[in-house]
Amino acid sequence: MIIYIFLFNLLMAVTFTFSKAALWYMSPIMLMCARFLIGGLVLFFYQYFTNNLPKIKKSDVKELALLIFIAFYLSFVFDNWGLQFVKSSESSLIYNLMPLSTALIGFFMFKETISLLQSLTLFFGFASLWPILEFDFENTDLINVFEVTLYARLAILLSVFFGAYGWLLMQRLIIEKKYSPLNLNMIGLLGAGCLSLLQIAVQKVSPYQQPLFKLDPSYMNDQIYLFFNYFFSVDSSIAITAMFHIVVLIIITHVIGYPLYGYLLKRYSATLLALSGCTIPLISAFAGRFFLKERLPSGFWLSFLMMSICVLLFYYEEEKRTGKVF
């Protein structure tokens, strides 16, 4: 079973790399729309031909709507927007706060208790983001660099909270409502895909344009783009590479990753799985360096060490108090 947890972490780490690269070729909302609608339709037809389409009860509509809007739409809107301006390794590091975010949501929304030591680890866990704050910026001509990157990091942090709440919803729907992970993934993708398509229509902005920075093919260190550009023209290789990234994201995230996570949720708690995700920033940092030629933020290792210690201490205390973590 441990190998499945490692496989899930590996898949999730690679998504940061491919998402970052995909944003070189399309706007964040276009990436969401294409990824969600294509992925949702693939899962729909798979479940249709295997007679596994869900039977949605009227009493579950509210929770499913929350799952679509919070876990899929809001979480990915903020994440994709913020990922434009920070490195993929930095984004994955912020996502390492998922277990602490889950605990905070449990404390404020579900009246779960936490000890004084856990309160301190929560404080220092979120404070561990401070070392990675830098005054550099990627792909922009904006003058106020630090302000924009700060907003990007806050957007990704909000995405973490939305994602944590979404996973708790998904766990409840799987365990108590008896929906399968594929059912929920399909519903979330199609629903959020339609919302992102509606956003494109309402905004009346070309989804292929980058409103915050110019697309510069010479900047693209993406090894996959360079491979396609060897055989095709610049414009053709950009289109092919964009579609390639979308297909890979759909396969590793929605076809394999999320259903695998749902499978693991039946056997382990959401907080334990989030705890095991401490390896994701390390894998993502390696992938970002290899595929995108990204350098690590100057405070990456200090932030990672502080964050990991806080997460481990938090759940050590949780196991000692309740014995329910593992």
What's the end-to-end separation, in Å?
13 Å
Topology as a string of helices (H) and strands (E): HHHHHHHHHHHHH
Mean pLDDT: 81
Uncertain runs with pLDDT below 50, 5 residues or more? 136-143, 209-220
Structural class: mainly alpha
Q: Give the overall form.
A: globular
- Counted by DSSP, the helix tally is 13
Describe this entry's structure for a reader.
The chain is mostly helical and 326 residues long. 72% of the residues lie in helices and 0% in strands. It has 13 helices and no strands. Helix 6 runs antiparallel to helix 13. The longest helix has 32 residues, at 234-265. It is globular, with a radius of gyration of 20 Å. The protein starts with a helix and ends with a helix. The model is unreliable at 136-143 and 209-220 (pLDDT under 50).
Question: How would you summarize the topology of this molecule?
Answer:
Blueprint lengths: L1 H21 L5 H22 L11 H23 L4 H8 L2 H12 L6 H12 L17 H31 L5 H23 L19 H9 L2 H32 L4 H7 L3 H13 L7 H23 L4
Helix pairs in contact: 1-4, 1-10, 1-12, 2-3, 2-8, 2-10, 3-7, 3-8, 4-12, 5-7, 5-11, 6-13, 8-10, 9-10
Sum up the structure in keywords.
single chain, 326 residues, mainly alpha, 13 helices, globular
Task: Please summarize what this structure is.
The chain is mostly helical.
